[in-house]
What we know:
CATH topology of the largest domain in chain A: Rossmann fold
Strand order of the largest sheet of chain A: 3-2-4-1-5-6-7
Keywords (chains A, B): Hydrolase
CATH class of the largest domain in chain A: Alpha Beta
Protein name (chains A, B): Methylmalonyl Co-A mutase-associated GTPase MeaB
Number of helices of chain A: 16
GO molecular function (chains A, B): hydrolase activity
Oligomer: homodimer
Strand content of chain A: 5-15%
Shape of chain A: globular
Number of strands of chain A: 7
Largest sheet of chain A: 7 strands, parallel
Region (Disordered) (chains A, B): 1-27
Largest interface: A-B, 47 and 47 residues
EC number (chains A, B): 3.6.5.-
Distance between the termini of chain A: 42 Å
Amino acid sequence: MDQQSFSALNERDGVNKPNHISTQASNQIKKMRRKIITAEDLVAGILNQDKVALSRAITLVESTNNNHTEKANQVIQACMPYANQSIRIGITGVPGVGKSTFIEAFGSYLTTLGKKVAVLAIDPSSSISGGSILGDKTRMEELVKNPNAYIRPSASGESLGGVARKTRESIILCEACGFDVIIIETVGVGQSETAVHSMVDFFLLLNLAGAGDELQGIKRGIMEMADAIVINKADGDNVKRARIAKLDIQRALHLFPEKKSGWAPTASLCSALEQKGMKELWQMITEFETLTKQNGYFEQHRKQQTTHWMLETINEQLKNNFYDNPTIQAELEKQKNSVNNNEISPFKAAQNLLDLYFKA
Amino acid sequence: MDQQSFSALNERDGVNKPNHISTQASNQIKKMRRKIITAEDLVAGILNQDKVALSRAITLVESTNNNHTEKANQVIQACMPYANQSIRIGITGVPGVGKSTFIEAFGSYLTTLGKKVAVLAIDPSSSISGGSILGDKTRMEELVKNPNAYIRPSASGESLGGVARKTRESIILCEACGFDVIIIETVGVGQSETAVHSMVDFFLLLNLAGAGDELQGIKRGIMEMADAIVINKADGDNVKRARIAKLDIQRALHLFPEKKSGWAPTASLCSALEQKGMKELWQMITEFETLTKQNGYFEQHRKQQTTHWMLETINEQLKNNFYDNPTIQAELEKQKNSVNNNEISPFKAAQNLLDLYFKA
């Protein structure tokens, strides 16, 4: 087999290639294919506020190909000095509460103030429930066309840890690209709220009037994390019920312990449909920013968050390194069986495996 | 200084020892002091259903002295073949719900059936709130005197992880000592319920009538874990309210997803004070045991639990080994500062530390 048979131009194995394909032409094609965009190109594009470069860089960050990691790190590292100049807002709420319509209305309002708005989504469940990403895209059809907005759904089919890490890195890229309001959206199920909470400055819970908290599946812990609870769909016949709900929530909020930020969370009304309540909400977030920047909480909180992500990454990698070790993988099953047959205690089995790992 | 000056018999330094102390006598004393109970002695005592040996073994397991770990492991290892012959019941509920009185009544009832009942407590907060251990001891004054019962409070001042691990090992020792009902008690705050849930077969939530779930601080997640919700203090004027509460809870339980065990959790009434409802509760637990042993869940669940504890222990030790490393400790602060000053991303800092760790 000559070298040519290895060429990608050989489409069918076993079929001889006609001799009249010019070697020069095929080399030319291969050369063009090889011309991939460099880390420097991406960084230059991002700093030049080019959304295409931003999208490419996020795709690089999201890549599970190990060869891309180094390049992704270079891009992030180069963007670091230009990041951190934004307010990061987390938005959660159960499906049906109208998150997409709300973000569309809120994001559009912010662009009229001259803000640049990036929307990132954390939704590890999208690969299972399906459709939500495309759904969001179509539902935010105004915002997606807005030159001062950028919408990026999460990488589907990833674990929460993976998606969260990549979202956190994407925030840095968006900020370097000049976006000064970063909205992180999460569907109101499971653990993703905690992940979002650990990467935003302001955490907003979107609610509906009428349905009780229990029925809405909102966990106490999520209410406790919220800096604001906004009751959406306060329009038409719903206004009265929404006002009652607001009072109920306000009463419930008093029962929670005081926040370290010094901020007292409040309940408010809005109608994403009628684009009402957006101005008041932004004013509230601005007040939060002013207060927490004055009392030092804003910066201190961001520092805690970065430390948290550093430690989380370390802990995850320590585990990966252990469980990916071939010796451990072989022995793990044996030890598991001994434990399952009640031959040894789980603690002794753990010790056996750790001894093996640290000896090697 | 001669060798004698090192003797423990020299009570005051600098004061000469009278010569008439017999060397023979002092050697005799030292020899007796050195006669510490061996692992074999402890195991023999435990298998002989000796509660004093059991207590000593649990103290050994709870010891934070590294020299005791090996001996503790020997004892546990030797007890393993005699363990696992019990039903493990977790009991939780907020303070004031009457857990101690309930356990006293329920435990006493079980001993009248010829059962041997061990009560272990998980309460990492006891060192802070204080008094709860002694409080429990006095409140369970009938049970503590009962020859077929054994009550052991948790080691105070430990982290939850530490207490939980030690409780799990203590279960093995109690089972080898012939106890066939193991009750694990936890105070209804924070994460300890999850730890208890991961070491028991049957998880019981003790409630009160009248107060709403929100007011009782019971998280949805804990209700979801429960195999039974028992409304205590269903006595006197309270009976009617307790009956209504039972119906409410039963309705709420229908909303939860079906359990893997095939068991449908129910609400029931009891009065620990009047010792009512104990027979019915034990009957329910027996039904649970029969069902889950028939459908294979019981054993499968225990296997999952031991695997869980093995992996938890590994993950904890991997972290300890990393963060206790002096090179890492020195570098960690530097990397944290770089991250806090936005010089590098938290992920790059994590990578730097991991590279350093795995190179060494």
